[in-house]
Amino acid sequence: MTKFKLEYIWLDGYTPVPNLRGKTQVKEFAEFPTLDQLPLWGFDGSSTMQAEGRSSDCVLKPVAVYPDPARTNGVLVMCEVMMPDGVTPHATNARATILDDEGTWFGFEQEYFFYQNGRPLGFPEQGYPAPQGPYYTGVGYSNVGDVAREIVEEHLDLCLAAGINHEGINAEVAKGQWEFQIFGKGSKRAADEIWMARYLLQRLTEKYGIDIEYHCKPLGDTDWNGSGMHCNFSTKYMREVGGKEYFEALMAQFDKNLLDHIAVYGPDNDKRLTGKHETAPWNKFSYGVADRGASIRVPHSFIKNDYKGYLEDRRPNSQGCPYQIASRVLKTISEVPLSGSASVAA
Ligand code: ADP
Ligand code: MN
Ligand code: MN
Ligand code: MN
């Protein structure tokens, strides 16, 4: 038997953005535990905005498991928060009720800033660094500093070793701003991996004295880009059948549901989706081929391929909840009939 360090990780009850929480229990297993071998566990919900002090127990239900490469015999356990009965999802548990479909693929592009001493990493104590331009995908000390690349590389290796489908990294438009991409088949799978990748990044940067700032417009109304979490998506039907007519019907439904999408695309998005800095205004739906100023960008390959492939919703922001974002995309898709079929499950 081996003693494994199980890190149970969950989302707390803070609004509008939950925090990641985690605590460790050590348990013996013959080999790396499977999901169904992991027991329910509890925590004090009165310290996480999830219960009153007098009846404070909440239950952690393991829903996904990954090796923890930063620890000897480490296990990362993604959990849903349940009521004391262990079966009723807690009100803060967004994951329990989302739509899922393994045939729908999601690619999230998580942008964020490194922050140190209350400002983006590499910003001078007073004022601003040289304006945006050379930082995006940049190289060299004056563009990316001396520590950011070490962190993003280490984060990439941690994610890959944990079995997370990390797909890439780039330095972003603002100084101190970076992005990683996660791809997953199904909303739960992709969203669990975004949360786990966020967790690994936050835990990794502790030792550097650096925080991750996920706010979508941390520098306010300035000439510095905000952070998004573009949601690229494709259903089986979009990949295999598609067509102009279906695409236009889908876009009309996205237009109709504009406010329902914005409601779950992350807080303060009106500060980011202004029409400037490669964004579309939050209150007007648009789509365009290769258009980074549209709500939904249609890749060139999609048109060339007879309106088949994936689309990029550019509106979700860096603080958004990937469970809710993916679920909202699936909901709108489910409302559009498929040509030549009575089924709405795309
Ligand atoms: P850009 O910065 O140009 O918008 P990225 O390369 O950062 O593009 O991100 C593209 C994303 O699209 C990746 O996360 C990738 O996984 C995702 N993606 C690619 N093909 C598909 C597909 N068929 N369905 C869903 N997502 C996809
Ligand atoms: Mn990108
Ligand atoms: Mn980007
Ligand atoms: Mn993008």
Calculate Rg over CA atoms.
21 Å
Question: End-to-end distance, in Å?
Answer: 45 Å
Please give the largest β-sheet: 9 strands, mixed
Bound molecules: adenosine-5'-diphosphate, manganese (II) ion
Mean pLDDT, rounded to whole units?
96
Number of extended strands: 14
Described by the principal axes of the CA atoms, the overall outline is globular
State the order of secondary-structure elements, H for helix, E for strand: EEEEEEEHHEEHEEHHHHEEHEH
Structural class: alpha+beta
The low-confidence parts are: none
Describe the structure.
By secondary structure, the protein is an alpha+beta fold. Helix content is 24%, strand content 27%. It has 9 helices and 14 strands. The strands form 2 sheets. Strands 6, 7, 8, 9, 10, 11, 12, 13 and 14 form a 9-stranded mixed β-sheet that branches. A hairpin with a 2-residue loop joins strand 6 (105-116) and strand 7. Helix 2 (148-161) packs across helix 3 (187-205) and helix 3 (187-205) runs antiparallel to helix 9 (322-334). The radius of gyration is 21 Å and the shape is globular. The model has no long low-confidence stretch (mean pLDDT 96). The chain binds adenosine-5'-diphosphate (ADP) and manganese (II) ion (MN) (3 copies). Adenosine-5'-diphosphate binds next to strand 6, strand 9 and strand 11.
Which key features would you list for this structure?
single chain, 346 residues, alpha+beta, 5-stranded mixed sheet, 27% strand, binds adenosine-5'-diphosphate, binds manganese (II) ion
